[in-house]
Every structure is written in structure tokens, then in C-alpha cells.
Amino acid sequence: MVWRLTWEIFLTVTVMLLFFYIYRLKRAMEEIGRDFAAHLGQETNTLITVSCQDRSVRRLAASLNRELTVLRNLRHRYEQGDREFREAVMNVSHDLRTPLTAICGYLDLLRKEPWITGESEGQAAVPSDSVRRASRYLERISERTMAMRRLTGELFQYFMIAGREAGDRPGSTQQEREEVSLNAALEESLAGFYAAFMEKGIVPQVKLSEIPVRRWLNRNALSRIFDNILNNALKYSDGDLQVILTTEGEILFSNHAASMNPVLAGRLFDRFFTVEGKTESSGLGLSIARILTERMGGEIGAWYEDGKLVIRLRLE
After folding, report:
1. pLDDT tens-digit profile of 24-33?
2. Alpha-helical runs (H) found in the chain
């Protein structure tokens, strides 16, 4: 009888100790899980710590700490390389803009030369065929030079904006905001593109909310977003454009675009992505629009349906 009672007490104590040990292991696993998630989500040099003295648990924590250290070092190397890359592109873009501006100036002077304009006096006549060829060559050089100016300008702007988004400079993500009427800002941008639309035979169909839609935004960033979206419409539109602004602050830009498809539409916001054949595009305009939109707490996206490319912009 005494033996049986002793055995039952022993089993009870053993089970209690086992449950306590399992409970401690569970708590230790939860601690490791919380610490690991916290260390992945923030920049810190601290490591995972556990209160449990179990050797297996401590070995697990030590293994995870080693992996965290490797991951942290790789992240630092990536961020440093990305920062250096952005700075290099910005510097090259900045350095290229000066000689390109000078080239454009000399091209303008060359176009005004009498033998090009046909106003030469007291000089040997230049064959008309030569003049036409020279004028054609000058026009091609001018087009390519202006394309390079646009590209270097957009490269500089993109990496400057991307650098601010990454927080390379203290306080750089802060934007001056003011109350802006989306109706007025959109009308202003559309008016600025009037000549370009007329040149391509595009008559925009505009439907704006009768109620003023006001948001606290950075006015310059909003103007840049609208301009980049409208530039995109000029590149891909088959001759139409519809712009709708709702009272909820949602703006839809839609146009027929035979050169697009659902896959291409999904990649429009990728950096440097251009549709084949659109050589005048740098592939940065909509990437800049996305960065600026998300920085102000908005959303932007695109899809292709029934032959139409639709860009949806929502500003809170």
C-alpha cells in the first residue's frame, strides 16, 4: 500500500515537472519568435536573448543570432551599395546636363547660320540638296540631344526622390503640405498639355466632381504626378483620353492603347520599364509618380481591359 502511494506521488511529481518543463520550453520558443520578428523589422545591433537555461534552446538562439548577424551585414552592404549607386547616377546625370545644354545652344546657333537658312549673301551658293541634308541631320541631332537631356533630367530627379524616400538625409522624407483643390490642380495640368494633345489629335474628355475635392498635399509633388501620368497618355494613347475625378478623391485616366496588354500594364511602374518601340521614354516617369504618391499616403495602379489602359490614382 505504501509502495503504491509512493509510486503515485512520484508519478504526479514527474508529470508536474514535465508539464512545467514543457511550459518553460513553450515560453522560450515564444520569446525567440518575438525577438526574431522584432530584429528583422528594425535596425538594431542587439541579439536574441532567452531566459530558459535549456541547452537546446540556447543553441537555437545562438544559431539564429549568427544568421541575424550575417543578414544584418548583407543588408548594410546592400544599402551602402544602393546608396553609392544612386549617388553615382545623380552625379553622372548632373555632369551630363551641362555639356548637353551647351550642345543644344550650339545647335540653335548652327540653325541660324545663313547657309542653313538660305539667307547667305556674297557667299558661294550651297547646293540645295546639301542644305536639305544638313537641315535633316541637324534635326536628328537635336532630337537625340533633347532625348538625352530628358533622360538625364529624369534620372537625376528619380534618384534624388528615391534617395529621399530611403531616408539618406535627415528629415528628407518630410514634405511641406498645404490644402490643395484636386479639381483646380488637375485642370491646371490638363491646360498645360493642351498644345501637346492638339498636336496628337487628342481631345480629352474630362469629368470632374462638381464638389471641390480638397486634400493636404505637396503641391509640387501633385503637379509632377499629374504631369507624368499625362505624359504617359501622350506616349501610349491611340487618340483619346478620359479623365474622371470623383468626390472621394479617386482619379481615373483611361485611353485606348493597342500597344499595351495586361502584362505590360502591370509593369508600367517598374523602374526603367518601357514598351518596345517607345524610344522617347526613359521608363522613369510613372516610377517617380508612384514614389511621390505613396509618400503622400496615396495609392496608384494600372490595368488593361477591353483595349483600354486605365491608371487609377487615389489621394487620401
Report:
1. 777 777 777 7
2. 2-41, 55-111, 114-117, 128-165, 182-192, 194-199, 219-236, 262-266, 285-295
